[in-house]
């Protein structure tokens, strides 16, 4: 009988996570990280991934992606205002980097999907490199800030990856991360039917506890961890955010505000810094 794999975040023992269905998922007994076991086909992330993207064809929804990017950049500007050197891991077609450039950031992106990276380079004129984080060979201490939006859940070795990102940051550099929140009210209620499980694309599933463990084990100081509803990115006004956020919370069977919450919403955000 094969030995059970340890937690990919903290190295502790794992146990089967039956609440999320028959897929080979295991939960860490220490930090609650949930990971998919077994080998994953690298072809999953080739061109077809973005053509069948869960949020709709990626390039066809450029306006929506740019709006999401501007909201994320508002959070970045609070901890690392422009001008600054910005690294984006999993930059897709480069919409966030392009929006960041208009604010005065000097952006560099890494994207394993060749078609998406080519769009950022050839259409938008960005420094967007095709490849994985391991292939990028980033110079140490060369960026003021880094971001990874809906990337960490795709990584088979998240602690090693975040350490590599941290090494590319200057002392006091900021890292922003966003992932689906497995500890959310909706995930607890829906279990295996929770759409952001997105198996087999999502290899790891975080809540606030495991996200803190990940960042701290990578040598970072956590500044904040909170959650926001999906409506945070879709609403175009405060009243609409309130209405959509409350509706989203009601579907999850929870009483949650429309704005940030410690752990109840479906999107988990974290901000951390390297040692000064």
**CA distance, first residue to last residue:** 47 Å
- The order of strands across the largest sheet is 6-5-4-7-8-11-10
Structural class: alpha/beta
Amount of beta strand: 15-25%
Structure explained in plain terms:
The model has no long low-confidence stretch (mean pLDDT 91). By secondary structure, this protein is of the alpha/beta class. The protein has ten helices and eleven strands. The relative contact order is 0.14. The longest helix is centred in the first third of the chain and has 18 residues, at 62-79.
Which SSEs are present, and which pair or pack?
Blueprint: E1 14-16, E2 25-28, E3 34-36, H1 47-51, H2 62-79, E4 85-89, H3 95-103, E5 106-111, H4 114-123, E6 127-130, H5 133-136, E7 143-149, H6 158-167, E8 169-180, H7 185-190, E9 204-205, H8 208-217, E10 221-228, H9 231-234, H10 238-251, E11 267-273
Parallel strand pairs: 4-5, 4-7, 5-6, 7-8
Antiparallel strand pairs: 1-2, 2-3, 3-9, 8-11, 10-11
Helix pairs in contact: 2-3
Quickly list its features.
single chain, 276 residues, alpha/beta, seven-stranded mixed β-sheet, 10 helices, 11 strands
């Amino acid at each position: 009988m094969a030995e059970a794999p340890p937690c990919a975040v903290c190295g502790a023992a794992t146990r089967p996570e039956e609440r999320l269905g028959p897929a080979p998922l295991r939960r860490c007994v220490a930090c609650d990280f949930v990971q998919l076991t077994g080998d994953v086909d690298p072809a999953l992330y080739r061109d077809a991934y973005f053509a069948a993207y869960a949020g709709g064809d990626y390039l066809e929804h450029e306006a929506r992606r740019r709006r999401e990017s501007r909201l994320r950049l508002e959070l970045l500007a609070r901890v690392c205002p422009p001008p600054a050197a910005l690294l984006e891991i999993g930059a897709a077609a480069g919409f966030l980097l392009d929006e960041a450039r208009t604010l005065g950031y000097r952006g560099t992106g890494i994207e394993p999907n060749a078609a998406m990276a080519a769009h950022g380079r050839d259409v938008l004129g960005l420094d967007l490199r095709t490849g994985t984080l391991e292939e990028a060979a980033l110079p140490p201490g060369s960026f003021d800030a880094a971001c990874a939006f809906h990337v960490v859940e795709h990584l088979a070795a998240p602690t090693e990856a975040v350490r590599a990102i941290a090494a590319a940051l200057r002392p006091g550099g900021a890292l922003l991360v966003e992932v689906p929140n497995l500890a959310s009210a909706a995930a607890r209620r829906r279990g295996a039917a929770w759409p952001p499980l997105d198996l087999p694309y999502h290899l790891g599933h975080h809540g606030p506890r495991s996200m803190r463990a990940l960042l701290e084990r990578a040598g970072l100081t956590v500044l904040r961890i909170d959650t926001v509803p999906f409506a945070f990115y879709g609403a175009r006004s405060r009243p609409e955010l309130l209405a959509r956020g409350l509706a989203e919370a009601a579907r999850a069977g929870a009483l949650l505000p429309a704005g940030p919450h410690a752990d109840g919403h479906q999107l988990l955000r974290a901000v951390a810094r390297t040692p000064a």
